[in-house]
Amino acid sequence: MAERSEQPGRTPAGPNVPNSAAPEDWATIVRHGLVEGALTLVLLFGVLTIVRWVVGPSPVSATIPQIHLQLLIIGICVGIFLALLILSKPGRLSGGHLNPAVSLAMWRFGVFPGKAVIPYILGQLVGSVLGGIVGRAVWGPVVEELPIVYGALQPGRGWTAGELFLAEAAGMAVIVAIVGTFLQNNRLARFVPWLVGFLIGAAIVALGTTTGGSENPARQFGPAVLSGHIDFLWVYLTAPMVGATVATIVLNRLHQRQHRRVLTHRLCGTRADGSRLDG
Description:
This protein is mainly α. The chain has helices at residues 26-54, 59-63, 67-87, 89-94, 100-109, 117-139, 161-183, 186-189, 192-207, 217-227, 233-258. 62% of the residues lie in helices and 0% in strands.
C-alpha cells in the first residue's frame, strides 16, 4: 500500500500501516463514540471511588490525613487505572482517548477524522455525568458532601480564572507534546498508555492543591454539573482544548521540518487489528 500523500498543514498517518487508519464511516464513528462514553463512565466512577476512599471518611483518610500524601495515592491509582483503560479491549477499539482534548489533538495531528471529534466528545461528556451518577448510586450520599462533592475540582484559594486557564492550558500542551513525540516512534508508541497515566498522575500530585490537576474537560464536566460547582467550569472545559491545539500546531511544524509522522490515533499504540506498530 502506498503511503498517504501529505496535506498542507496536516500530518498523515503512519506509512504502510493500512490498519492504523481512524474510523471514517458514521456507523463506526458512532459505535466508537459510545465506547468512549462507556470508558469515560468507568473512568469517572473509578476516580470518584478513589477520591471517596482516600479523601472522604475512611480508614485511609484517617491514617493519612495529609493532603499531599493523599494526592500522591490518588495520582498513582488514577494513573494506573487510566493506563489500564487505554490498554483494555474497548480502549483499543476506540483509541482510548477518554479526553476531549486528546480527540482534538489527534484530529489536529491528522490521524483522526474531524467528523468523529464531536461524537467522541459528546460520548465522553455524557459518560462523565453517568459515571458520577453511578458513583452516587453505589457509594450513597457521602459523595455529595465535603470533602468529596462528587469529586469536583476547585482551584486553590486566591487563584483567578486567568491563572487557572494558563496553568491548565500549559499542562495539557506539555502532555500532548510528549505523547505526540512518543507516537512518532514505533518503539516508543507502545509505552504511551503508561506515559499518559504517569503524566496525569503527576499532574494530580503537582497541581492538586492549586488547579486541581484536571487536564481533561470530561474529568471535570460530570462532577461539576452534578455538584453545582460550575464557577470555573468554563476554564476546565476550554483551557485543555487550547493547550492541545497549541501543542499540535508546534509539533506539526516540527514534523514537517524533520519529516516525522504521528503513527496512529490510538493511545495504546497499535494498529486497528491490535498488532503493535513495531511488529
